[in-house]
């Protein structure tokens, strides 16, 4: 589990879109219970079967993946969550067991909140319930789009999509990404993922260093990508803008 570093300072709002969309009265109620933690790449927040007792809000460039096991030794990432959203116990209530593994893809700051505290505050606030209901809809749309993408698009299109997704989440074209992490995003073996990266490298799209992908031609990368990220972003904007 992440180690606690400090509580959110009075009067401040973390760099997280959901928390910044919470109304002033509700944020005042939640603020004393928000803990800021520092997490590192590869860290597991919770495993399949764990009772999820916290909600995690990535801040800044922090990115979390939700991975699903497909056999005894392989896991595929279904979705990436960054500063736009949250992972953890905000969908199911009464601390239901998790279906997936939530792991840190890109380390950095994060805010943690007790699921029980969020539930208690939601009972007193229709706007807060609406905000998290709308975000749940967006997360479901993101997962559905990822499922369709895996079925309909080529490995090259999906590879470009995931790299662009990480760029947009982190705000940098030097993406901290290992070959193992890339393979989990694509649902393929490490050697196959490495060949895809080598193909992009040969096309002048990117370079690789230890644990880092450095994009050189973002325009060409976008041309190789499918449009799944665009559809997800459009849905987020349409659904969540009504909570502003």
UniProtKB/TrEMBL annotation:
Signal peptide stretch: none
Domain HTH crp-type per the UniProt entry, residue ranges: 153-219
Name the record gives this protein: Crp/Fnr family transcriptional regulator
InterPro entries attached to this UniProt entry: HTH_CRP, RmlC-like_jellyroll, WH_DNA-bd_sf
Single GO term (MF): DNA binding
GO biological process assignments: regulation of DNA-templated transcription
Organism: Bradyrhizobium rifense
Pfam families found in the cross-reference section: HTH_Crp_2
Gene3D superfamilies: Jelly Rolls
């Amino acid at each position: 589990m992440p180690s606690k570093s400090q509580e959110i300072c009075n009067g401040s709002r973390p760099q997280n879109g959901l928390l910044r969309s919470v109304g002033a009265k509700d944020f005042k109620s939640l603020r004393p219970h928000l803990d800021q933690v520092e997490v590192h790449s590869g860290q597991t927040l919770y495993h399949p079967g764990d009772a999820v007792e916290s909600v995690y809000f990535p801040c800044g460039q922090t990115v979390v993946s939700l991975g699903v096991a497909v056999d005894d030794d392989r896991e595929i990432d279904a979705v990436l969550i960054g500063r736009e959203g949250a992972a953890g116990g905000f969908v199911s209530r009464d601390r239901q067991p998790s279906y997936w593994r939530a792991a840190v893809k890109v380390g950095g700051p994060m805010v943690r909140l007790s699921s029980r505290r969020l539930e208690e505050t939601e009972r007193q606030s229709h706007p807060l319930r609406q905000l998290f209901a709308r975000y749940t809809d967006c997360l479901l749309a993101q997962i559905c789009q990822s499922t369709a993408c895996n079925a309909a698009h080529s490995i090259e299109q999906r590879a470009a999509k995931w790299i662009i997704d990480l760029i947009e989440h982190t705000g940098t074209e030097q993406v901290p990404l290992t070959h193992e992490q890339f393979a989990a995003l694509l649902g393929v073996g490490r050697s196959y993922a490495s060949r895809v990266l080598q193909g992009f490298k040969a096309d002048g799209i990117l370079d690789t260093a230890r644990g880092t992908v450095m994009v050189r031609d973002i325009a060409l990368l976008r041309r190789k990508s499918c449009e799944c990220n665009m559809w997800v972003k459009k849905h987020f904007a349409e659904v969540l803008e009504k909570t502003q």
